[in-house]
């Protein structure tokens, strides 16, 4: 056998040997589980166990409303402007949606879009102020809706976490706005959070109708 062939064979054997002795990394452990109280006083409802997102591992829903019943945007021109913001629906895009709203409407002084007002929401836990909340995208809100229908009893925290669904026979009170615009003219995405049959594709509603709004944060 030629010397060059011996060197190649030796290299292959070394690679095989190193592969055989290499230990597999243990599964990653997470500090929080879905259903636990989050550091900002809310509730963890989504854990990125698949490690799809580099910047965060958890989604936490706020303990109270952003505002009591609100429009998505107020003015017709605001809706037309929102159509040009390239708003997304996927998990991981809610913050980007709200930042786009903020940049587009930073010179507005009244009747601000709901996504802008969500960025002003804060919670205080101990001596720490959490001001990184935002209005969820359609799929983030869908993940919250799915969690809610599966674990309704777990949404009440010891310090009085407000349940997502109001005590009312009016089903329209169970509508929750997302930060995602709908492909139907004049409408945005929302979710009807009541029972398992209602969780699937999001609903759409006219941008100037008043519905619930709950902020989330990623960390």
Task: Give the overall form.
Answer: globular
- Beta-strand fraction estimate: 15-25%
Order of helices and strands: HEEHHHEEHEEEE
The description of the largest β-sheet is:
3 strands, antiparallel
Q: Which residue ranges are poorly predicted, with pLDDT under 50 across at least 5 consecutive positions?
A: 156-162
Helix-and-strand structural type:
alpha+beta
Number of strands: 8
H/I helix tally? 5
Radius of gyration: 23 Å
Helix content: 25-40%
User: If strands are numbered along the chain, what order do they take across the biggest sheet?
Assistant: 1-2-8
In whole angstroms, how far apart are the ends? Answer: 59 Å
Mean pLDDT: 82
Walk me through this protein's architecture:
The chain is an alpha+beta fold and 219 residues long. It is built from 5 helices and 8 strands. The strands form 3 sheets. A 3-stranded antiparallel beta sheet has the order 1-2-8, covered by helices on one side. The radius of gyration is 23 Å and the shape is globular. The protein starts with a helix and ends with a strand. Residues 156-162 have low confidence and may be disordered.
What is the compact description of this entry?
It contains 5 helices and 8 strands, in the order αββαααββαββββ. With 219 residues, the chain is an alpha+beta fold. The longest helix is centred in the N-terminal third of the chain and has 19 residues, at 3-21.
């Amino acid at each position: 056998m030629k010397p060059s062939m011996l060197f190649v064979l030796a290299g292959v054997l070394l690679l095989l040997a190193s592969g055989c002795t290499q230990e597999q990394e243990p599964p990653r452990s997470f500090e929080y589980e879905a259903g636990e109280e989050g550091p900002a006083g809310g509730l963890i409802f989504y854990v990125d166990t698949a490690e799809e997102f580099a910047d965060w591992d958890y989604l936490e829903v706020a303990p109270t409303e952003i505002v009591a019943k609100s429009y998505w945007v107020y003015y017709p021109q605001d809706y037309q402007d929102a159509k040009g913001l390239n708003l997304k629906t996927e998990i991981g895009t809610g913050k980007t949606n709200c930042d786009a709203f903020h940049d587009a409407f930073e010179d507005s002084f009244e009747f601000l879009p709901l996504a802008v007002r969500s960025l002003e929401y804060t919670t205080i836990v101990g001596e720490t102020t959490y001001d990184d909340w935002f209005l969820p995208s359609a799929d983030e809100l869908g993940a919250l809706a799915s969690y809610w229908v599966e674990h309704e009893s777990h949404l009440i925290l010891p310090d009085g976490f407000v349940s997502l669904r109001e005590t009312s026979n009016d089903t329209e009170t169970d509508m929750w706005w997302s930060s995602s615009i709908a492909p139907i003219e004049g409408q945005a995405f929302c979710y009807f959070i009541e029972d398992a049959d209602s969780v699937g594709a999001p609903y759409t509603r006219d941008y100037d109708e008043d519905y619930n709004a709950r902020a989330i944060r990623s960390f």
